[in-house]
Amino acid sequence: MQPVTIYTTAWCPYCSAAKTLLRDKGVAFTEIDIEKTAGARAAMLQKAGGRTSVPQIFVGDRHIGGCDDLYALDRAGGLDTLLAA
Predict the structure, then answer these.
(1) Distance separating alpha carbons of residues 50 and 74, to the nearest angstrom
(2) Rounded to an integer, what is the distance from CA 67 to the centroid of its chain?
(3) Residue-range domain boundaries for the chain
(4) How far apart are CA 11 and CA 84, in angstroms?
(5) How many CA atoms lie within 13 A of 84 on its CB side?
(6) Hey, which CATH number is domain 4-84, 3.40.50.2300, 3.40.30.10, 3.30.428.10, 3.30.930.10?
(7) Going by C-beta distance under 8 Å and a sequence separation of 6 or more, which residues neighbour residue 69?
């Protein structure tokens, strides 16, 4: 299974929704809180092509985007395929 990384903040409802979907699918992920981890916001901005909103989700080296993007990928049947690659 591909490694999953999600950049979050503690107060973000979209971050919570994205983490719930991943947990419901049994996906282990690395969570990086951009308010608590030094340099995390800058790293997220660079990896996400300048996107500043959270969550920013990565499967392997592929940038998925935010919560809506993650749910859309799952609805289209692409998330399971991507995770298994």
Answers:
(1) 24
(2) 7
(3) 4-84
(4) 30
(5) 7
(6) 3.40.30.10
(7) 57
Per-residue pLDDT of the chain (85 residues; tens, 9 = 90+): 899 999 999 999 999 999 999 999 999 999 999 999 999 999 999 999 999 999 999 999 999 999 999 999 999 999 999 999 8
| Burial class (CB within 10 angstroms; exposed 0-12, middle 13-18, buried 19+) of 67 | buried
3-class SS of residue 4: strand
Residue 8: helix, strand or coil by DSSP? strand
Q: Are 72 and 25 in contact (CB under 8 A)?
A: no
Could you tell me which of 50, 16, 51 has the C-alpha nearest to residue 33? 16
pTM of the complete model: 0.95
